[in-house]
Structure formats: C-alpha cells, structure tokens
Amino acid sequence: MPISVVIADDQEMVRTGFRMILESQPDIEVLDDVTDGAAALEAVERLQPDVLLLDIRMPEPDGLEVTRRLAERAATHPEHHDRPRIVIVTTFDLDEYVHAALHGGACGFLLKDASPALLVEGVRAAAAGDALVSPAITLRLLRTMAPTAGRSAKAPSEPLTDREEQVVRALATGRTNAEIADELFVSLSTVKTHLANVQAKLAARNRVEIAAWAWETGLATGG
C-alpha cells in the first residue's frame, strides 16, 4: 500500500509543488491538499492519511494547534494513536516552533527550501515511525550538546564498528541517507542497515536520537 498524505498549506504554489514531488514517487499517494487548519482537521478525520504535511502559519487553527488537537485526539481515541504522523514544513525555523512542534507530537520538521529528496525522505521516515528534522535545524539544536560531550551519554550495548561510526558522524553533521551513501561509496540499503544496527545498540527511537548521542559523546566532532 502506498503512503497516503494530506498537505495543509495556505500557499497554492507550495501545495502544488509538494504534490508534484510526492506524486512522482511510486510509494506515495496524495489524498488531498487543503488551505487551513480547520480543513486539515476535517481531511484527517475523513481520509485517515498516514502522514500530514502541515504548515505552521496558516488560517486558524494554525499548524501548532492542529498538531496539539490531533495529539489530544490520539490520547482519547487509541484506535487513531498512530495516524496521522505529522511533519511540519515551514519557512520559519525558530527554535520555539521546533520545540513546540516536536513536543506537541510532530515527528518531523522541515524547511520549505528543503530539497525534494529530503521532503520525500521526511514523509517516508514519518510513515515508518521515525523522525526527520532539517539538517540545518538539527545541527543548531544538537551543537548545544557539544560542551557536555562525553559526560552523560549512555554507552552502546556493544561497540560501534568503524563503518558505523563513519555513518553516525555523517548523520550527525546533517547528511541524508542518500548523501551518506554517496560520501562513503556504499549503497543506500547498506547505510540503512548500519543505522538500524546503531539504533539497536543505542536503544534509540530514531535518527535524531542517534545524532544527539553522537554530539553528546563527541563523535560528531571527532572526539
């Protein structure tokens, strides 16, 4: 079954562009695109998409409020707890928005100038229950962990291999899976396998937690 998506953004050009990018993928289907928060909530209720691409600044309710309401619905209606997965896509990368969105239940935060490949990867990651945050935002947030590197990071269940460390270092410095594969001259499936192994060793929930561990330990900076 393809990944079903609803797009919510008040800019027609953005909706059209996102739809074209996503519908070019054989495993993604756009069910609807809407212009405001109220229509987004209605579309989610009506269509039950796997992923909701959601702008922050749009007519009431805004994207953060939509995220909050859907999280509240999931808490009161367990049968909908895993649908939809929310990916915020916005022009504004203010830290307060990032924290509010992720703490509110969103599983991704991308900027509208992200590459088509990153948009597609963000949708796929969300559908798989993972999290993807724009590399520039990830770096800014995670670099704050560098001053405490090595002090509180948990140890992996078994040591990472040299290749796994290379993959994690690239991930922590903002590379997508495809970019890591190109940089290390390996296949995309090999990168995914390494990350799955690392995730298991760290008991991490997603790639953001892997990147955070790399900064905490100093691995991201060569420590």
From TrEMBL:
PANTHER family found in the cross-reference section: TRANSCRIPTIONAL REGULATORY PROTEIN NARL-RELATED, TWO-COMPONENT RESPONSE REGULATOR
Keywords for the protein's UniProt record, in alphabetical order: DNA-binding, Phosphoprotein, Transcription, Transcription regulation
Organism: Streptomyces yunnanensis
Matching InterPro entries: CheY-like_superfamily, NreC/VraR/RcsB-like_REC, Sig_transdc_resp-reg_C-effctor, Sig_transdc_resp-reg_receiver, Tscrpt_reg_LuxR_C, WalR-like
PTM annotation (4-aspartylphosphate): residues: 55
SUPFAM superfamilies documented for this protein: C-terminal effector domain of the bipartite response regulators, CheY-like
Name of the protein in its database record: Response regulator transcription factor
Top-level taxon: Bacteria
Response regulatory domain: residues covered: 4-127
Residue intervals of the HTH luxR-type domain: 153-218
